[in-house]
DNA sequence: GTCTATACTGCGATAGAC
DNA sequence: GTCTATCGCAGTATAGAC
């Protein structure tokens, strides 16, 4: 997310990615184009093709960067929502040492997972780079090792946060994560389309809180079906 | 949703709308264009402009038709989920005659509202015309009375279904509807982007059920905060 | 009411000069 | 590594023939 504007004889590759984020934030995927990115940086429309073979490879680099940044934002929000369990979020053992199945540790884990929805909403509203960009269908054919790693790390982080709640098995963590992402992405998408326009400038925070609360409800339901 | 293919010297206007739905179902908004619609119908690229002044007016007509059809699908699903209350879904009085605040009538109303999410998911997967089309930002400037009426009727129907649950006030019905729509739209959007691809051909029904269950959890949470 | 033909715009991508 | 110049293509929209 560096924004140095050192385009001429600087790191044009990084500048292209940064400018792509700006474009996505302003107009969404609809208005993203190689030509528009070049125009924004004041370089010729041919310049980007020295760094990326085609449009999809540039978008893939953006996707990888978004996955990295989004994961960081999610981890930050999770930590802010409550301290992680002593054995870390990677533990898959459902029987935590000396704690009841629905004890305070599980409640804190639920808070951290719920915070994911708010973090997702805030990040995507600010950057325009949500799962529709990170997992854009046109990127399936692009070979991009960095993107593969970062999207994998992002999903692993989400699954870890879900597993840390008292969800019985790893298998149940997957649909739980999908539900959290679905509700967060739904709020984000409706917001981007102007659905909550009447809310005024502080609408972002209002909706972010609502997304978090909705996620909490989904987590609660998963544990008491 | 008639599909007569009577384009030459038939009702081209209706055929354009029907063909637009096909395009949206296949490629989403991204691939929708006046030229592609004309091509699909075997008419010249100029022909649509005798019926719609520009692209946005065609899309607005599609939006209105989608709102109409989606509302019908939602009402059908709601009725299938359980019989409506005797005084109909338009009643806003929170005190139903002779029933406890969280009685069986309220539970049935919750089932009907939850069914909205499944109906939305199924409709949009089949047609590609969800809220991102119905409320597309580029339609704000289009004067289209039919669309205005149909979107209004759609929202009224959703608010009626939400109010029929034992939600304390009409004010609380609005965020509840928004939450339902958000989760339904989130599942739909992720599905369209290939997020649940591994599910096979029956994946549509699986995800539709999950969207319905998620909606039910949100409704439950709204009543017991 | 639909056709052909056309003007214009914007994007993706390449060739070759510097 | 970036430039200018250019090609090809797709889409929006209009003019005028039939």
TrEMBL record, chains A, B:
GO molecular function, one term: DNA-binding transcription factor activity
Annotation: DNA-binding region: 33-52
Record domain HTH tetR-type: where: 10-70
Keywords: DNA-binding, Transcription, Transcription regulation
Protein name (record): TetR family transcriptional regulator
Nucleotide-binding listed as a keyword: no
Pfam families (alphabetical): TetR_C_33, TetR_N
Keyword DNA-binding carried by entry: yes
Domain of life assignment: Bacteria
InterPro entries named among the record's database cross-references: Homeodomain-like_sf, HTH-type_TetR-like_transc_reg, HTH_TetR, MT1864/Rv1816-like_C, Tet_transcr_reg_TetR-rel_C_sf
